[in-house]
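Q: Given only this backbone (469 positions), what sequence would you predict?
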């Protein structure tokens, strides 16, 4: 008979204890063991026995699988992802070494992961300060920028939320049963009311009447999303707060915006569980419309979910996502693909994202090339919000979903495209102030650091002429 493998769950046990708000001595007393033994378990210096696993599950009313799942592979994959950063390109760090460190030195592994995340956040903050040198350092931080920085530093990937959401989706058993689930588990009815009764609300939790109220102006996909979102707030509050605890926010608004973004992430994960969705995207070759029909979600919800598929060891194509209004204002921006979004000022008008309003509802594909030679592939399309009844206000926005050129062949949108399409990529810039393409006829401002030539004797085809020094 094969010998059972010892189970080491140090980091997971420590997270569980912290989520429960317990000290090591408190957990030791609850389980009838010594505090020093709890410390050894958390440092992976002792394996978790079957007897202790059952005691944990009974004492804290939690699923055994939540505790017993092996963290080693997850930590190893995350550590290997860190060492792929170009900053470490000159270091020889074999994958076996990262496996060894993650398996035997859980504390060191967690410390490296925390330091790297903090480094990424500070790098993004520094980019913000450099891009806006006139900003008063003493002013309050922009809460939207704080939230975007938090998400970008983590590549908009939160495996803990994916796991919790997948467990909830299994319990619900499909959106057709969600009304029953609310009634059985939370003693809440789901009621759909006319928009005029709901006033300015789309969803409201009415504890007095023990009901979740939804506006009937919402389409089916939006109703499902709002119900999933309410589930997140009812069942995943501690998980959201735990992720926020390491954010270092300088404003309450920044923390609240980020909590809302994480809740939206989790709601999408309930509607499109990671394992099922990750398989479907490969079967469908990342066809957003086909995936939307399969999961009963909107185009935007599905595109948003595609940016989150970076769970260590189960990664799919890394995407970036952006949403703008007709005036070019950015209302949502998510980056899982390393796209250098403009942090201040407008985007490049040569990007098809800004042309999508001329062709409503149509998917527009485009190859993009940045000034440093990086190439990306993007799709853009308009999406609509609001409406739902005659005379109700409707908002049309444009969204773009894109990935690095090396991944584009996996997408249905590039099937049958000749190689010349990629070779003829549209030269775009991040923003005019940072783009040094001298021949661009769409330029709206001169780039930082270039001297503008007088046009007393010569006028170029571009709006500005620059010295060539």
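A: Predicted residues:
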């Amino acid at each position: 008979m094969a010998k059972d493998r010892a189970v080491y769950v140090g980091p997971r046990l420590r997270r569980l204890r912290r989520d429960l708000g317990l000290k090591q001595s408190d957990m030791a007393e609850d389980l009838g063991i010594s505090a020093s033994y709890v410390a050894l378990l958390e440092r992976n210096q002792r394996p978790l026995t079957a007897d202790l696993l059952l005691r944990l599950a009974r004492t804290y009313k939690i699923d055994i699988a939540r505790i017993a799942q092996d963290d080693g592979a997850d930590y190893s994959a995350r550590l290997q992802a860190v060492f792929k950063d170009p900053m470490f390109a000159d270091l020889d760090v074999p994958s076996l070494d990262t496996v060894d460190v993650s398996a035997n030195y859980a504390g060191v592994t967690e410390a490296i992961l925390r330091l790297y995340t903090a480094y990424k956040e500070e790098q993004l903050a520094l980019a913000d300060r450099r891009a806006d040198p006139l900003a008063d350092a003493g002013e309050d931080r922009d809460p939207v920028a704080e939230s975007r920085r938090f998400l970008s530093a983590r590549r908009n990937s939160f495996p803990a939320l994916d796991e919790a959401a997948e467990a909830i989706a299994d319990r619900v058993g499909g959106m057709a049963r969600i009304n029953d689930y609310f009634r059985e588990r939370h003693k809440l009815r789901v009621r759909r009311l006319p928009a005029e009764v709901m006033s300015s609300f789309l969803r409201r939790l009415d504890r007095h009447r023990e009901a979740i109220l939804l506006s009937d102006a919402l389409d089916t996909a939006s109703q499902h999303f709002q119900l999933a979102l309410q589930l997140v707030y009812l069942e995943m509050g501690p998980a959201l707060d735990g992720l926020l605890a390491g954010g270092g926010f300088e404003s309450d608004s920044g923390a609240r915006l980020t909590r809302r973004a994480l809740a939206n992430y989790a709601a999408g994960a309930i509607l499109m569980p990671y394992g099922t969705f990750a398989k479907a995207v490969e079967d469908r070759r990342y066809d957003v419309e086909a995936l939307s029909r399969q999961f009963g979600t909107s185009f935007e919800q599905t595109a948003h979910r595609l940016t989150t598929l970076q769970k260590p060891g189960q990664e799919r194509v890394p995407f970036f996502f952006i949403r703008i209004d007709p005036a070019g204002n950015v209302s949502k921006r998510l980056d899982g693909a390393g796209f250098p979004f403009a942090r201040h000022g407008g985007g490049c008008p040569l990007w098809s994202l800004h042309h999508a309003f001329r062709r409503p509802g149509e998917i527009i594909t485009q190859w993009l090339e940045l000034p440093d030679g990086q190439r990306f592939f993007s799709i853009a399309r308009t999406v609509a919000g609001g409406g739902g009844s005659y005379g109700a206000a409707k908002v049309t926005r444009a969204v773009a979903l894109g990935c690095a050129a090396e991944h584009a062949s996996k997408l249905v949108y590039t099937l049958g495209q000749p190689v010349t399409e990629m070779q003829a990529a549209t030269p775009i810039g991040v923003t005019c102030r940072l783009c040094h393409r001298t021949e661009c006829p769409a330029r709206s401002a001169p780039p930082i650091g270039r001297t503008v030539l007088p046009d007393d004797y010569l006028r170029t085809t571009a709006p500005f002429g620059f010295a060539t020094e």
